[in-house]
């Protein structure tokens, strides 16, 4: 549905040229919620404004539904933008107009008959939960209510695409949660493709199907959200996850004290609620200790990740009273990691249960 091919964008000053985008390729499918995440100055806002061509690329092509709009005329762009709604970080409402009139504004510009426009606006305000606030002014609304007005206004012309430019970054956590739930509802009920930019991995985790990580004008990592969260490859992605409280490497604080094998288990779906470790003990006679772990949801998918130490289970002596030097030697041996055969058995055990295994220290 949305294709960006080889997009470059440079801004020129007297002193130098700023290369905001440096060859971006993106394909966003119809009906997706697609997130673009990066730090301030990474190129997020410039990239999202390429989709409705509020910014024209220095190089590259912008295709919507297979049609190239890179060099489209003003009249063609006006028609395109009626099919692309936009939600802004700071709401951009008309302070002198009521909630209803703010939503009516794009319909008036589009030439929609008055009765039809009022019906459409009231329907949208009910959709976003503001049917009792239609005659209020923006100054009488909370931040979350203002953003709901902004969303209703963006939906007024029945767009196929909704662009969200840091739509929740000015909101508190509870209000952010409610706005994300509303966007999810809009995506599911109306089938609208949503493209959002954010600096928050929590926003991506709760709403998006796919994510692209941008750094210094380049897409450094892209994929479905579950895979990017559980198997981050680029250092920027890992840093963003760590900043959001998802630190996959905190176990290393214990590294100097660990002499057993260390593995990372990554799992999602129904496996996330199965008693895997108790099966590990009973079936393979291995003992474990948990160094780090987390469980949660990525959109609607339960997931978990755990770092554990594993050692050979202590064999029960035939004579419990026998505390010989031989049994003590066995204890000393097993405290220095698993044999290669045991590691192979361990991997097979978890892979049969659709759990990814990574040996961090053998």
What is this structure's SSE topology?
Blueprint: E1 2-12, E2 17-28, E3 33-37, H1 44-51, E4 59-64, E5 67-68, H2 74-82, E6 84-87, H3 99-109, H4 114-127, H5 143-154, E7 161-165, H6 173-190, E8 193-198, H7 201-207, E9 210-215, E10 218-224, H8 225-230, H9 235-243, E11 261-268, H10 276-284, E12 286-298, E13 301-312, H11 325-334, H12 340-351, E14 356-361
Parallel strand pairs: 3-8, 3-9, 6-7, 7-8
Antiparallel strand pairs: 1-2, 1-4, 4-5, 9-10, 11-13, 11-14, 12-13
Helix pairs in contact: 3-4, 3-5, 4-5, 5-6
Describe it for me?
With about 350 residues, the chain is of the alpha/beta class. It has 2 domains: about 1-245, 3-Layer(aba) Sandwich (Rossmann fold), CATH 3.40.50.300; about 250-315 and about 335-360, ACT domain (Alpha-Beta Plaits), CATH 3.30.70.260. Helices cover about 35% and strands about 30% of the residues. The chain contains 12 helices and 14 strands. The strands form 3 sheets. It has a 6-stranded mixed sheet, with helices on both faces. The protein has a 4-stranded antiparallel sheet with strand order 2-1-4-5, with helices on one face. The longest helix has 18 residues, at about 175-190. This is Methionine ABC transporter ATP-binding protein. One of its GO terms (molecular function) is transmembrane transporter activity.
């Amino acid at each position: 549905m949305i294709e960006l091919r080889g997009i470059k964008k440079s801004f020129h000053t007297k002193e130098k040229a700023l290369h905001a985008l440096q060859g971006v390729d993106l394909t966003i499918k119809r009906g997706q919620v697609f997130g673009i995440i990066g730090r301030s100055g990474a190129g997020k806002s410039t990239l999202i404004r390429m989709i409705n061509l509020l910014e024209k690329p220095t190089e590259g092509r912008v295709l919507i539904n297979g049609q190239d709009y890179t060099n489209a005329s003003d009249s063609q762009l006006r028609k395109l933008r009626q099919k692309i709604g936009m939600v802004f970080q700071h709401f951009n409402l008309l302070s002198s107009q009521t909630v209803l009139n703010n939503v009516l504004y794009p319909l008036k510009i589009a030439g929609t008959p008055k009765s039809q426009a009022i019906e459409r606006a009231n329907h949208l305000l009910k959709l976003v939960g503001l049917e009792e606030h239609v005659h209020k002014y923006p100054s009488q609304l909370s931040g979350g209510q203002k953003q709901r007005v902004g969303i209703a206004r963006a939906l007024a012309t029945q767009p196929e695409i909704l662009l969200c430019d840091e739509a929740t970054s000015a909101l508190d956590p509870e209000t952010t949660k409610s706005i994300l739930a509303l966007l999810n509802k809009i995506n599911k009920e109306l089938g609208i493709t949503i493209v959002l930019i954010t600096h928050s991995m929590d926003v991506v985790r709760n709403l998006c199907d796919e994510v692209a990580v941008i750094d210094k004008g380049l897409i450094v990592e892209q994929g479905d959200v579950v895979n990017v969260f559980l198997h981050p490859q680029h250092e920027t992605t890992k840093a963003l996850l760590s900043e959001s409280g998802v630190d996959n490497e905190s176990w290393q604080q214990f590294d100097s004290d660990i002499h057993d094998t260390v593995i990372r288990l990554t799992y999602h779906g129904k496996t996330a609620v199965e008693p895997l470790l108790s099966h590990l003990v009973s079936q393979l006679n291995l003992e474990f200790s948990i160094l780090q772990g987390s469980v949660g949801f990525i959109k609607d998918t339960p997931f978990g990740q755990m770092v554990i130490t594993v050692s050979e289970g202590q064999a029960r002596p035939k004579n419990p009273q026998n505390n010989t030097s031989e049994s003590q030697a066995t204890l000393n041996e097993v405290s220095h990691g698993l044999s290669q055969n045991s590691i192979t058995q361990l991997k097979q055990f978890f892979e049969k249960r659709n759990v990814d295994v990574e040996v961090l220290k053998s």
